[in-house]
Amino acid sequence: MLRQGLYVVRGLYRDGLKLIRLAGQQSFNRAHLPASYCHQPIGVRALTMSSWPFSSKPRDYSLPNESWSPEMQKLYDHYNALCEVEEEGEKKRGAWWRLPSYNRTLKYATGGRCLSKLLQAKARLFTRNIEEPGAGFEYVVFLNKPEKSCVCVFQAGHLLEGPPGHVHGGAIATMIDSVTGTLATYLSGPVMTANLNMNYRSPIPLGSVVLVHCALEKVEGRKTFISCRVTSSDRAKLHTDATGLFLTINVGHLFGA
Amino acid sequence: MLRQGLYVVRGLYRDGLKLIRLAGQQSFNRAHLPASYCHQPIGVRALTMSSWPFSSKPRDYSLPNESWSPEMQKLYDHYNALCEVEEEGEKKRGAWWRLPSYNRTLKYATGGRCLSKLLQAKARLFTRNIEEPGAGFEYVVFLNKPEKSCVCVFQAGHLLEGPPGHVHGGAIATMIDSVTGTLATYLSGPVMTANLNMNYRSPIPLGSVVLVHCALEKVEGRKTFISCRVTSSDRAKLHTDATGLFLTINVGHLFGA
After folding, report:
1. d(CA A26, CA A156)
2. Which of A31, A39, B103, B240 has the most beta carbons within 10 angstroms of its beta carbon?
């Protein structure tokens, strides 16, 4: 049901609870921005690149850390390289964008004062609530705007166990909800999950690296339909397939605004 | 995709990797057992009540702790009272059973030696991987055997955030997978999730207490169909409804046995 706080925050800002668009869907059309911006896409960029108002930048969990396996790093490098292309000696943005990821963007976006009254100050994004590198969800999402699709490289840590030695179905559902929802948000603005339908085909061993591929199926009014396939890193084995239905919302209603 | 390690362990035990039934489905028919046993149901009881072979008993996460809200405690007390009935001055088992819950049953069940070679020694059940009381999933499952149903009292901690101030859809999916799967396991033996289909109707505020009601729909060969409704604690508001399909498995295949 999530949309990563990161994206929802695009709609939130005020003395307390005013709605503005820190970075709206028009962010997709910034053809004039230099190629290096592909590493700081949408929403967050508006905060980080110019006038970050707080003492320190939050940790971007989508960047490599020492827990990443060589396989995870290799896949990261592969997609990250696609974020830049060289044309006539100049580096330009490619079709892919790496999406940064934080454990609580709202805290940073508002300075935390008003929202800490409204929300618990200790709240953390579910997928980023474990600080120990490699213990929980290690993942990075790359968006392909022209194709209206994305891929997530996901390494499942030892705290995600369900069946002995394998990843919990709820942890797989969490990644599917997060990645399909992220794509829906980029395509349709702030959304909430309305339906998730998942077929578990083959269990995922703890510690392994898988790919979560998502693609837009269709948009009908407020409804955005996303399909999803979780495969082995070489794409040969299908672990889970799923569909997600997302409804466009006015995020203000979450706060009674 | 999980079946809590607790239940899967029913099928696992040997020098290394032999399959036996520590407590099988016949556990349902222990009418001769005293009422007090309803607090130590199936599987674990076989380990804990007679010859617990290790130095200390593991923590049972389904028992009340200081983080539980008065509402959570009240619901616990309500269902726990139904686990015992008094007839002619004697206490007997009621229709309900409280299910204990551990963060890694296999570790305890085998002494950890063989399985630690096979699995990561640090692995923890996804729903019990946070030690801080109240921060993650606080829940307790009560099983109603005659009705082939169960109810889970669930208090959502601040580390389960998805939309600002609300529970992540993946965390809700995790509870649904866990509770439907637990019921399927009690009815059909070790199972794996084959399909989960969830409709998110209304977001769940962080910190609130909800009920997860599950009931058997039908059994067809290896397939067990479970329905599920996540409601407010007074049952007035429907947050999520879902169906789960589970396939009976031989747990040995998870280990290549």
Report:
1. 34
2. B240
Helix, strand or coil, per DSSP, at residue A217: strand
pLDDT tens sequence across B123-155: 899 999 999 999 999 999 999 999 999 999 999
Cα–Cα dist B143/B152, whole Å: 9
B169/A181 Cβ within 8 A: yes
- Cβ-in-10-Å burial (0-12, 13-18, 19+) of B252 comes to middle
Please report how the helices B169-188 and A169-188 are oriented relative to each other, as an axis angle in degrees rounded to 10: 150
Instruction: State residue A64 phi and psi, 5-degree precision.
Output: -60, 145
Partner residue facing B170 (CB), from A5, A9, A174: A174
Q: What local confidence, expressed as pLDDT, does residue B253 receive?
A: 60
Contacts of A165 in chain B (CB under 8 A): 118-119, 123, 254-255
Residue A66 lies in a domain: yes
Give A31→chain B minimum CA distance, Å.
30
Q: Is residue A32 part of a domain?
A: no
Contact A199 B198 (CB under 8 A): no
Q: Per-residue pLDDT averaged across B175-193, rounded?
A: 96
B-chain CB neighbours of A118 within 8 Å are: 165
For chain B, what is the domain count? 1
Decide if B200 and A198 are in contact by the 8 Å CB cutoff: no
Helix (H) or strand (E) holding A212: strand A209-220
Runs of H (alpha helix) within B13-81: 44-48, 70-81
For B69, the domain range is 58-109+123-255
Could you tell me if residue B28 is inside a domain?
Answer: no
Most confident of A160-169, B51-60, B80-89, B172-181: B172-181
Of B124, B135, B136, the CB nearest to A161: B124
Q: Which region, left, alpha or beta, applies to residue B111 given φ > 0 means left and ψ of -120 to 50 means alpha?
A: left
For position B104, what pLDDT does the model report? 72
| A155: CATH | 3.10.129.10
- By Cβ distance, the residue of A2, A161, A168 closest to B162 is A2
Say whether A168 and B127 touch across the interface (CB within 8 A). Answer: yes
> Given B5, B173, B251, which is nearest A174 (Cβ)?
B173
CA distance B114 to B121: 10
Q: By CA distance, what is A1's nearest residue in B?
A: B169
- Please answer yes or no on whether A164 and B119 come within 8 Å at the CB atom: yes
Predicted pLDDT at B68: 97
Is the model's pTM score more than 0.90? no
Q: Decide if B40 is inside a domain.
A: no
- Count the Cβ atoms, other than its own, within 10 Å of residue A217: 14
Within 10 A of A168 (CB to CB), how many other CB atoms are there? 29
**Per the CB < 8 Å rule, is A126 touching B178?**
no
